[in-house]
Write a structure and sequence with these properties.
heterodimer; A: 256 residues; alpha/beta; Rossmann fold; seven-stranded parallel beta sheet; 8 helices; 7 strands; 41% helix; B: 74 residues; mainly alpha; 3 helices; 0% strand; globular
Chain lengths: 256, 74
C-alpha cells in the first residue's frame, strides 16, 4: 500500500470482465490510470486490444478472449491465464446482459442465459480466483457490478433484477465467508449510465420514456467514469474496512 | 386463423372488458405500451411461428395490417 495515496492501485493486478466496452472498459482504463496491471476478459480479442491501447502502460496488461457463457472455458483457460499473472489482487465482474422481457412471456432458456452471464460466470471465476497459487496472500477485493434494480423494480426488468439481486445477496455472504482470508466482496449498483448497453434500451427509443428517466435522476444520467471511480475506490486500500456492501451510484435515483 | 389472432391480441394485451376487431387501431388501446409491444411480439412468435420486428409496428395502424403481416410471414 502506498501510504501517501490509499487510492493508488500501484503494484496490484486486477481482473475485469466485460472489458470490451461500457462500464467494464471504463473500469479497466481507470484502474490502469491508478497504476494497476489489468487483465481483461471479453469475447472479442480485437476489442480487448482496443481497450488495452486506451489504458496507461499498455505493455503491462494482459487479455484473454473468453466466452463467459461457456463454463468449461472459464474453468480451464481462465485458470491457466491467471496462474501466468498471479498473484491477483482484485476482480471486477462488469460483464452482463440487461434483458427487458415482460414476465408473461418469460422463457426458461432466457432465465438460464441471463443468469449464466450475469451470475453463474461470476461464481465460477470467484472459485478460480480464490485458489491457492492465484489469489494474493495480502488479500483481495472483489467487486460485482449490480444495478439499482437490485433495490427497486421496473416493468419488464424482473429477470434483470433477479440476476442483479443475486449478485448483491452473494457478496454479503461471501464477505463473511472470506473475511478471515482478507478477501473483501462488494457490489456497485448504478442507475442509468451512458453505455452502448443502455443506449440500446427500449426507453431510449421513446421520447416520453426518456424524459421520465431523466426526471428520475436529480444529478442527470451517469457517465462511465462515475462508476469506474467507485470501483477504483473499492479495489484500493482506501476501502479496506468495507465489505459486504452494495454501493449505490445513481445520481440520486433512489433518494426519493 | 382470424379468431385465433383476435384471441391472442386479447390475451397478450389482457383485454377482458370488450370485444376487439381487425379494424381497431391497436396503438390507441389503453393497454398499449412498450411492454405490450414486447409481449405481442413474443406471443406471435410462440403461437404463429412468425418473428415480427418492432420496427414493423411503427408503420402499421390497425390490427388488420398486423394480421396481414402475420399471414404473409407464415
Amino acid at each position: 500500500m502506498n501510504p501517501n495515496n490509499p487510492f493508488s492501485l500501484t503494484g496490484k493486478t486486477i481482473l475485469i470482465t466485460g472489458a470490451s466496452s461500457g462500464i467494464g472498459q471504463g473500469i479497466a482504463i481507470a484502474c490502469a490510470g491508478q497504476g494497476a496491471k489489468v487483465l481483461l476478459l471479453g469475447r472479442d480479442a480485437d476489442r480487448l486490444k482496443e481497450t488495452v491501447k486506451l489504458c496507461e502502460n499498455g505493455q503491462d496488461h494482459g487479455f484473454l478472449s473468453l466466452d463467459l457463457r461457456d463454463e468449461l472455458q472459464i474453468n480451464a483457460e481462465l485458470e491457466t491465464f491467471l496462474k501466468q499473472h498471479a498473484p491477483i489482487h482484485g476482480f471486477v465482474h462488469a460483464a452482463g446482459v440487461s434483458p427487458t422481457i415482460p414476465f408473461k412471456v418469460l422463457k426458461e432458456y432466457q432465465v438460464q442465459e441471463a443468469f449464466q452471464l450475469n451470475v453463474f460466470s461470476a461464481i465460477s471465476m470467484i472459485q478460480v480466483l480464490t485458489k491457492v497459487g492465484i489469489k494474493s496472500s495480502e488479500g483481495m477485493s472483489m467487486v460485482m457490478i449490480a444495478s439499482v434494480m437490485s433495490e427497486v423494480g421496473e416493468k419488464g426488468k424482473s429477470l434483470y433484477a433477479m440476476t442483479k439481486s443475486a449478485l448483491v445477496g452473494m457478496v454479503k455472504s461471501l464477505a463473511l465467508e472470506y473475511a478471515d482470508k482478507k478477501i473483501r466482496f462488494n457490489a456497485i449498483s448504478p442507475s442509468v449510465v451512458n453505455t452502448p448497453l443502455s443506449r440500446n434500451s427500449e426507453y431510449r427509443k421513446n421520447e416520453a420514456a426518456m424524459k421520465q428517466v431523466l426526471e428520475q435522476h436529480p444529478l442527470g444520467i451517469g457517465e462511465v467514469e462515475d462508476v469506474s471511480n467507485a470501483a477504483v475506490f473499492l479495489l484500493s486500500p482506501a476501502s479496506r474496512w468495507i465489505t459486504g456492501e452494495n454501493m449505490i451510484v445513481d445520481g440520486g435515483y433512489l433518494a426519493k | 386463423m382470424e379468431e385465433k389472432f383476435i384471441n391472442l391480441i386479447k390475451e397478450a394485451l389482457e383485454i377482458e372488458d370488450r370485444e376487439v376487431s381487425l379494424t381497431d387501431k391497436f396503438k390507441e388501446f389503453d393497454e398499449w405500451d412498450s411492454l405490450a409491444l414486447l409481449t405481442l411480439i413474443a406471443e406471435l412468435d410462440d403461437n404463429f411461428g412468425v418473428t415480427i420486428q418492432s420496427e414493423v409496428f411503427e408503420n402499421i395502424t390497425t390490427l388488420q395490417e398486423l394480421f396481414d403481416h402475420v399471414k404473409n410471414d407464415q
